[in-house]
Design brief:
Number of helices: 9
Bound molecules: adenosine-5'-diphosphate
Radius of gyration: 60 Å
Strand content: 15-25%
Structural class: alpha+beta
CATH topology of the domain at 2-148: Beta-Lactamase
Strand order of the largest sheet: 2-1-5-4-3
CATH architecture of the domain at 2-148: 2-Layer Sandwich
Number of strands: 12
């Protein structure tokens, strides 16, 4: 940028110097012509009729009196009768511009380039009457041509050019320093991030653009950071999921393998062999169950089937009648506080899972002779029990995958710690909030808030 400014200012000032010198030389030349003409006029007027003879001798002596100016004397017809310079000249001068003017008005004036290009010649011609005869006296002197004048100026111009270049260098340096330093500062500040400000109104647009760009970069960086975190989290969650599945599968597989080995070695017979077969069968069922649970858990995310109106009141009553035998077996009473016609936007199978998981848990983690209350209205579904309750430190964890309070109990009743995780997923999809309130030893209450007021 500095180079360009230097070049432009150099070109501009050089052009200015050239034009100025040309114009001023021309003006000076014009003044010189005016002065020369006035001088020639005075010279010609000094020709005293009768003082000089109208021949070469007269012309020479008049020329000598004038200090060497060329003098030509012509008769009334423009024919040369006397010439101060020895060179032979054309005898008929009646066609010369200055002579023609003098014939017409008494005096004439002309400037013509001389035989050499370097010099012009100025002529002044005056009509003189003498003894009834008419003569024309022409006085001429050399003039320096405007080009010669200009050529003489060139050395001094060269000095000005050098001064100009130096001046431009200094000017460019100072000007660009003042012009560029705020811009450079702005760029430096912007490179450091954050918001930049400037006191120069001309730079405020650039500052705005830089700020906007910085904001976009920051925003994008934050997005990338968040995406990275999400990917990391997803990876961790996947690793954890696989570790949990492996762990859950390991126990039944070890048991199946152990019993199968014993049976194949022929070491078991009779009742023991029967137990072995039953254990293998039960553990295989448990594995099948686990796989079904995992598939079901994963399907909730991938299923994009549409929602529709589900009569939750009807579904809750049906579910209670299904689980009642199980409850009776554990001597648990189910209390229904179900409003009619509670319609929600979801799918039948999802609601069956939600109700089944909550009510079964309430029965499963209950005490003998306890109660389970299922409350349903248009605002919420609440399943409360008078069972073992949940310790405060586990309250947040119960909705996590594979979380079971009592690990020894895990898997015994199909409990892999996926039931509440499934409930949470279903509620999230529907935009509902699921929460738990519990007191250890006294009971728990799981509430699904439909978000309606
Ligand atoms: P599980 O298949 O083990 O029941 P869930 O996800 O349904 O898995 O429940 C996770 C854990 O939360 C259970 O192992 C249990 O410890 C606890 N839990 C769930 N419901 C209740 C309840 N009504 N009362 C006490 N504890 C419960």
């Amino acid at each position: 940028m500095r180079k360009r400014i230097l070049l432009i200012s150099l070109l501009v000032t050089i052009a200015a110097i050239l034009i100025y010198s040309l114009v001023s030389t021309q003006l000076y030349y014009n003044i010189a012509i005016e002065e020369k003409r006035a001088a020639l006029e005075t010279y010609a007027a000094m020709f005293v009729p009768g003082g000089y003879t109208p021949d070469d001798g007269g012309a020479e002596s008049f020329s000598a009196d004038l200090g060497g100016a060329r003098v030509t004397i012509m008769d009334g017809e423009g024919m040369v009768v006397g010439e101060s310079e020895a060179d032979a000249i054309e005898p008929d001068h009646s066609d010369r511009e200055e002579v023609l003017q003098a014939m017409e008005s008494g005096e004439g004036y002309a400037v013509r380039p001389s035989d050499t290009l370097a010099r012009d010649m100025m002529y002044f011609c005056l009509r003189v009457e003498e003894g009834g005869n008419t003569y024309y006296v022409r006085v001429a002197e050399y003039l320096v041509s405007s080009w010669t004048m200009y050529a003489r100026l060139l050395p001094s111009l060269a000095v000005y050019f050098i001064i100009d270049i130096l001046g431009c260098l200094v000017f460019t340096y100072i000007a660009t320093y003042f012009m560029l330093s705020p811009v450079e500062k702005l760029a430096r500040d912007a490179a450091g991030g954050g918001t930049v400000t400037t006191g120069y109104s001309e730079l405020s647009t650039i500052a705005d653009v830089l700020n906007e760009r910085n904001r976009n970069i920051e925003w994008r960086m934050r997005e990338i950071e968040e995406e990275k975190k999400l990917v990391e989290r997803a990876q961790n969650s996947k690793d954890e999921f696989i570790a949990n599945i492996t762990h859950e599968m390991n126990t039944p597989l070890t048991s199946i393998k152990g019993y199968a080995e014993l049976l194949s070695s022929g070491m078991l017979s009779g009742e023991m062999a029967d137990t072995a077969y039953k254990t293998i069968l039960a553990q295989s069922e448990r594995l099948t169950n686990l796989i079904a649970c995992i598939i079901n858990y994963n399907e909730i995310d991938s299923d994009d089937l549409p929602s529709y109106d589900v009569d939750l009141s009807k579904l809750a009553r049906e579910m209670i009648s299904v689980v009642r035998p199980e409850a009776e077996k554990r001597r648990v009473t189910i209390i229904e506080k179900i409003d009619d016609n509670v319609i929600v936007q979801s799918r039948h199978e999802r609601m069956t899972q939600l109700l089944g998981n909550l009510i079964r848990n309430a029965i499963r983690y209950n005490k003998e002779g306890g109660t389970v209350t299922v409350e349903l209205n248009y605002k919420k579904l609440a399943v409360s029990d008078t069972g073992v309750g949940i310790a405060p430190e586990n309250m947040d964890k119960v909705f996590s995958r594979f979380f079971t309070v009592d690990k020894s109990h895990s898997g015994k009743n199909g409990g892999f710690g996926l039931g509440l995780a499934v409930c949470r997923k279903i509620c999230r999809r529907a935009g509902w909030r699921i929460s738990v309130q519990s007191e250890l030893g006294k009971g728990s209450c799981f509430t699904v808030d439909f978000g309606l007021r």
